[in-house]
Amino acid sequence: MDNEPKNNKRKVLCIEDEYFISELYERALTKNGYDIKIVNNGIDALKEAQTDQYDIILLDIMIPGITGTEVLKQLRDPSKTPHLKAKIIITTNLEQREEVKENIEKQADAYVVKASLTPNELVEFIDNIR
Questions:
Q1: Looking at the domain 11-127, which fold is it?
Q2: Residue 35 Cα to chain centre, angstroms
Q3: What is the C-alpha to C-alpha distance for residues 13 and 89, in angstroms, rounded to an integer?
Q4: In degrees to the nearest 10, what's the CA dihedral of 93, 98, 99, 104?
Q5: CA distance to 2, 42, 55, 62, 118, per residue, from 17 (Å)
Q6: Would you say the pTM of this structure is higher than 0.85?
Q7: Is-contact 56 11, C-beta < 8 A?
Q8: Residue 4's pLDDT is what?
C-alpha cells in the first residue's frame, strides 16, 4: 500500500490557547495528513485527552483552567488516566528553571520550544515520533 500517507491519518490533540499558533499548527498538520483537534484550556483538554482517541498530544504549559503541567501529571497518573496510548509533546515558549524542565521532560515524550520550530519543522518532528 505505497499510496497511503506515511502517518495514516494520525490523530493529534493540540492543547494551545494562543489562537495564532494553534491555527498555524492546524494548517501545517492537516496539510500533511494529520487529523487535528484544537482545545484551548486545561479543563477541556484533560477530558479530551482522557478519551484516548489520539496518537499525539501537543501540550502547551501555559493554558487557562488548569496548567499544562497539571494536565501532564494527571495524564501520567494511572489512577486518573489508566490507558493512554498518545505520545505527549510539551510545547512552550517559557524559559523553565533546569530542574522544572527536567521534571517535565521525565513525564513527557518530548519537549519543544515553540519559538525554535516553524510549523513545518514541528510536522517533521511529529512524523518521527512513534
A1: Rossmann fold (3.40.50)
A2: 13
A3: 10
A4: 30
A5: 37, 9, 20, 8, 18
A6: yes
A7: yes
A8: 42
Give me the amino acid identity at 66: I
d(CA 130, CA 97): 28
- What is the DSSP annotation of the chain? -TTS-TT-S-EEEEE---HHHHHHHHHHHHHTT-EEEEE-SHHHHHHHHTT---SEEEEESS-SSS-HHHHHHHHH-TTT-S----EEEEEE-SPPPHHHHHHHHHHSSEEEEGGG--HHHHHHHHHT--
Residue 85 C-alpha cell reads as 496510548
CB 108 within 8 A of CB 89: yes
Q: Is 15 left (phi over 0), alpha (psi -120 to 50) or beta?
A: beta
Domain-wise residue ranges, the chain: 11-127
Backbone φ, ψ for residue 5 (5° rounding): -60, 150
Alpha carbons 81 and 8: distance in angstroms, whole number? 25
Condensed to tens digits (0 to 9), the pLDDT of residues 32-69 reads 999 999 999 999 999 999 999 999 999 999 999 999 99
